[in-house]
Records
---
Amino acid sequence: MDNEKGLLIVLSGPSGVGKGTVRKKIFEDPSTSYKYSISMTTRNMREGEEDGVDYFFKTKAEFEELIKQDQFIEYAEYVGNYYGTPVEYVKNTMDDGYDVFLEIEVEGAKQVRKKFPDALFIFLAPPSLDDLRERLVGRGTESDEKIQSRVTEARKEVEMMNLYDYVVVNDEIDLAKQRIQSIVDAEHLKRERIEAKYRKMILEAKK
Ligand code: ADP
Ligand code: 5GP
């Protein structure tokens, strides 16, 4: 029997809410079978980051060339830098039957929704906007001005919650991780997905 196609899981939400932290926690868990799609970006590498692990770091010219070549499922300009999801890895990995996990900002998630309406969209929300600002300040990777523009952006992003299937509040990292894993597990048990598999089995049995 053919491989069942993997699910596309999109984790999004405001910058500083903890997407990266929760995503890392999910991928540290040896029982996680999803594949993480590493994004490309033109922003500077932060301390402790590695090219090809955290992101594929590109120059603006390289990124714009890839846009021209239609190499992204989605891309967005976010606080002065490009971020994008390479198309090839995602398609091939899903075709191989693996679930693919994207961690992207909301403009990009909107584009994915148009191209992959069957994907699973999860919005990671802060317990409050004050918590969000505190997390950005606590991370210590941005200037005050950048933090302010990220918080302004976050207000708009919270209003975009209605594009999502589920909302997970990131109060505690472990709880957020468990909630996301439960959502993905349940998605695999959706009647439509299971039914399609059984229909195929019945057809093959008739041959
Ligand atoms: P994002 O990827 O959404 O921009 P990060 O993962 O970089 O956000 O998290 C921003 C900051 O918030 C980091 O300093 C991180 O350690 C902290 N953080 C993440 N999740 C939580 C949480 N549940 N409680 C408290 N702090 C958190
Ligand atoms: P950071 O600079 O903090 O790593 O990321 C800034 C924002 O870009 C975060 O919200 C992060 O989730 C998002 N991001 C990371 N990769 C991608 C991507 O491939 N596409 C889009 N649209 N956003 C991304």
---
Amino acid sequence: MCSAVTPTQATSDAGIVRVVLDVPLDRWFDYLNPGLDIREGNRVVVPFAGRQLIGIVMALAEKSEFPEHKLKAVIQAFDDVPFDAATLKLLRFCADYYHYPFGQTVLASLPLRLRQIKPAVSRKMWMYQLAKPVPDGLIGKRQLVLSKLITALQQHEECNEAMLGEVSSGWRKAMLPLLESGLVTRREVVAIRPSLTASDHEPALNEEQEHAVNSILGALGRFQPWLLFGVTGSGKTEVYIRLLQAVLAEPKSQVLIMVPEINLTPQLEGRFRSRLSQFSLVTLHSHLSESERLQNWQAAQSGEARIVIGTRLSVFTPMPHLKMMILDEEHDSSYKQQDGMRYHARDVALVRAKQCKIPVVLGSATPSLESWYNATGSIEHPAKANKQPTYRLLKLTKRAAAQAKLPRIFCIDITHSPPEAGLTPQLKQAIEQRLKRGEQSLLFINRRGYAPVLHCSACQWLADCRRCSAKMVLHLRQRLLRCHHCGDEQAVPLQCPSCGNPDLRPVGQATQRIEETLQQLFPQARVARVDRDTIQAKDALTELLSAVHAGKIDILVGTQMLAKGHDFANLTLVGVLDTDSALYSPDYRASERLFAQLMQVAGRAGRGEKPGEVLIQTAFPQHALFAALQTQNYAEFAGSLLQERIVLQFPPATYIAVMKAEAADYALVSQFLEDLTHAAREFVAQQASNFSEMPIIYDPVRPGIARLNRMERGYVMLQCAQRNALQQLLHAAVAWAWQHPLQAKIRWMVDVDALDY
Ligand code: ADP
Ligand code: ZN
Ligand code: ZN
């Protein structure tokens, strides 16, 4: 069971309090209890190295291994209990698996407010419910507010203050006599944003959806990963909604839904809110204010929130009655944390589901190869005959909405029709057609800014970043050169810094420049650009999306932000401008990512009644990736990629981890990594008889961006076909690194199952 374990009642008056702290040491710290009421899981304030820190109580003990007179006393104890045993168990697993200090793992999983030295106050609110049937004649003729109030209470099992606020601003006054007469009762709850805008439009499920829902519901109450593999628009969200309705029918039960980036998909949240309006729903993501975040987190932890929709960090949210987890777009790399503890929320979700004995549903039109491998296993890969599928595969092969068809995909060979200012004649013509028909177009180019390079034609000077081994991107509107890796900015030079030539030229295409080109080509068209630069404000994307839905935009230009989940009924053309660099990238994951990205962006076309068309500009129209894309045959493409990975011994056929190091001076990094390689190889040689699969330790190398923010970088890759052996090696390597004389002079970190190095 995954219920909250009540903290042990044992409170001790003069005992030892053992806590973890947000410090990079993987151990507990002992303090004396000066007589405070302290329980396991409590937050306490303790002195540490001249500072005061928040500690989380792991245990209460009679004795310490340290002499008591050397121990300091706890300064303060808060009576909130952020952790239960189930959550701590999950965090313990993660700290071990990702080789990250436990105290930092624990503290990082909390909302900021709970990491601060003050009590976590949350605003309390009331929930109102009808206690008995409404007597006839209660509502007089002109008592409109009262009548609306009663109707709302009759329609909902419970109403909270915001819901009633939607009914009428005068609801409080009208409510008083109802409470006094006992017709209405109320109870105190944590504040939750509610919804009155219910939608009962419920499409009849098609056969595949029905099968998916029934299969998953048939296996509740135990651990089971499901891979819901459904083409874009096949009705995965509808499946999630039905699952939630069924699971939440059980009193108290909770569901966690994870999405890659919630602010990119406001529509999704809206659909859950309106279709499941009778259940309290909270979101958890970085666009919330800290107090909202605390409030929502507490609502999840107390069990008040039945549905939690969140981004990757929400995987750690305590939920005492968690009965199911759903991960939408499970292939999305934003589930991987790229600093601190480098966890993958999908993998953590699987561990959590296993610990809680509940199903976890992974949904995608282009599953990650990891999940695909786990779901198809040896069936499609005789080369790894020992691999049994551990996930169960469910397929949705067609678009769900009656008229919607999958778009047709074509390649435009740019060696025959060279683009002018980024656009081939065919693409221009296709856009023009859409403008004439009053339909919308989307142009996808995965680079923001004006141009990726600023170049001097006289001396071949290029604008480099001062801090990174990377080019500065030209942002013409702000007249800035900006490094997309470290954020450094410089004014655009008026002449070449190297030879004085005033004629500096932007080279290549990016969103701003395409936007400008489109405005010149189609002056009557309404063009909107969507990238990190235009969508910084909290509601900017929501506003833009509603403009698109309202038909106020003709052409959208944007980065992958546009690729995700949006449902534009009148969008019939998707143009893909420049993806060739990813086709032949040295990164073995590049084609997997590109395929997913193109499939997603192509999925934006033809979601309404009108058929969609996708035009891809490329110099390599014969590439296997495009063939698979055109037939929308993910299974075949994934199969061939998997064969390649098996042959090359890359994940998911094997497991990898990288140990990264960086310092201002590469000599130090190099020394550290050389020593590491040596020590790790020695360890493996010594342990050889214990391993059924031998870990491989590669020589130190430098990443693509060798210098980042003035730090010289390098890494060592460790690889093994057996997870356990790799973990043992990592354990030894981390212990070794802590002892190394250079470890204080450089920064080093471990990235298990690394996606980027
Ligand atoms: P996905 O999440 O797979 O992209 P959605 O759940 O968003 O797909 O469904 C795409 C569209 O199809 C939505 O407009 C949705 O309302 C509609 N839809 C989903 N299931 C059905 C169904 N069974 N019958 C008719 N329309 C459906
Ligand atoms: Zn020059
Ligand atoms: Zn830089």
---
Amino acid sequence: MSKKQCLLVRYRDFLPVTPQTPIITIGEGDTPLVRSQRLEREIGCGELYFKLEGCNPTGSFKDRGMVVAVAKAVETKNSAIICASTGNTSASAAAYGAVCGLTVFVVVPKGNIALGKLAQAIVYGAKIIAINDNFDKALELVRALTQKHHIALVNSLNPHRIEGQKTAAFEIVDALGDAPDYLFIPLGNAGNITAYWRGFVHYKQAGKAKSTPRMMGFEAEGSAAIVRGKVIPNPKTVASAIRIGNPASWEKAVAARDESGGVIDYVTDEEILSAYKLLAVKEGIFGEPASAASVAGLIKKAKSGTDFSKKKVVCVITGTGLKDPDTALQSAHTLPEIPADLETIEKVIAQG
Ligand code: F0G
């Protein structure tokens, strides 16, 4: 654990932290920015880095925003919070709600969230409401609920979530000494691309960075609402975290793209799974499938001719692969059972 101050203190001047805001932490932020060992050369980047957001306490970037949203909910005397989620937001809300003694309601699409994320919400003690519909419907319902009841909404529609999540951009600039040339990021509900862009802009305005990056957001092909310019009623993709057909921060994501000179595009499930495997076998990084959309996007752009050879590129790896064991195991061959003797194992090793 780093000796650095917690996120709410370290970036207090950039956050809605008042003397009344409770300073809570379970170790969020200050995640590693690691230099690529092999893909940098193979893809052809000047410098390639991965921001490992899976190293947050609940295994995803959501903790940066949740710590702010939950602190503000406590400050404004809420005793309950609620969110719709494809899994990671629910895990994070459940953890931060638990540490503050709040009642946590999470509304999730039944059968459509990764097993590890469901396990987290269960163990942190959230009240799980599994609906027979998708994320977009769940979000519609929690928005209506929070208009009727005194329960704090902690989806990224809550501006405090975006404020907290922008700290990842600060950390990247702090580590590199300036903004990178390109920031590749998966895009689901579009809160995170909005948050990063805000972070880069605020840091530049504060004189902490000279430049801002091009924002490169990647949806999954089967849920590419922004790319297609229309709501997708039945979004589909292997990357369940970004299976979203009507992103809440749609306009803000488009503004981030246009103001930064960036791109919003999609990657296919095949490209996502291929990048997911490459990250693991070439870099030792196990991100969840949605996280690999950033790397898949970089590979797609490099293949189609963008020259990154003199560029500094950061890919955000938004969540840990341990959350989604099903996808990991689907690619496994059946494990042969080997007798427990030295000779047999030596034979297996000799085969390489
Ligand atoms: N990567 C992961 C691992 C996610 O969990 C999400 C979103 C995204 C990327 C996309 O970020 O929505 O800000 O564009 N997960 C949300 C959830 C929707 O409910 O956990 P976004």
---
Amino acid sequence: MEDSQPRFLKACRLEPVDRTPVWFMRQAGRYMEEYRRLRRRYGMLELCRNPELAAEVTLQPIRRFEPDAAIIFADILLPLPPLGVEFEFAAGEGPRIHRPLRDPADVARLRPVVPEESLGFVMEALRLVRAELDPRIALIGFAGAPFTLASYMIEGGHSRHFLATKRLMYEEPDAWRNLMSVLTRTTVDYLRAQAAAGAQALQLFDSWVGALDPDDYREFVMPYSAGVFRSLEDLGIPLIHFGTGTAGFLELIREAGGSVIGVDWRVPLDEAWRRVGHDRAIQGNLDPLALMAPRPILKGKVEAVLDRAAGRPGHVFNLGHGFLPETPVDNVSAVIDWVRGYR
Ligand code: CP3
């Protein structure tokens, strides 16, 4: 029945809702004591690869805050080992890829991925979570976008200037296009498998795409992100297109696709929505650092986002990027309460 639909899914479809739905990127993680407790016993990848543990971590923020959506606990880098690119999460410094891609031969060595086989633990975790989850709470699956995945595979970890990535893009355009095509295919198959396992919406994370100028985005990246969205359209479920640093080319992000566009805090929500077009839903865009501010400042920033959304159907309240580990848990509860109480 239409009215039992989670309000998050309704908002994604631009339908009116009783109140603004809210969830947070990185809502499971180190800022929560119950997560840190599990992390003392298990590595990050162990948590991801064990469906019972991944389901448990997914549900931790649901039990504590009851947001309107759960995002499956996983990581955008999980498809790398099946592609033939091994990595680890090094304590305190983020992902470390053992042998970053640097030339066309490295790209040619990538292996085809069958997600149901090599990433079956993610699908199993989705099934476990969906079985436990209140029907009013939506379940979100996700994957990294081709550019953001490529940048990790080429840089070997986090990067400030994306020098090696841009070098390959400019100097070896054929290898670049091969790599982006492989990642597009992998991402499509992986997200389709997640939908089949119970994901009711899918988010594509292009977290570092803001490193590009609009011309390079259009030429070297947009065709592949657009390919992902085009290949998922027939699923008929909300597709969220998230990036940071995209204020310079929001029109192209819209053109690439997604029924919901996720924006960071560097652009005011009303301006972003106008440029994206009111025929798409919008997700965002509280600065995650606002959670470290004194309550009156935090409340002001939460209300500013809601004011700019102006009650228009199609706003999903979220951060502009993920929580930091230092985030006070009580401030997260307060944000949820303010969003819920906003008239
Ligand atoms: O949102 C959620 O609650 C779902 C879980 C989730 C994680 N990573 C868990 C995680 C999601 C959606 C991601 C996506 C992801 N992973 C992105 C895109 C979103 C973004 O933040 O830009 C990126 C770029 C990655 C790659 C990644 N994974 C990095 C750079 C790091 C290290 C940085 C850090 O915060 O330590 C990770 C590790 C990671 N992924 C953690 C979590 C909870 C921390 C792991 C730990 O417990 O030590």
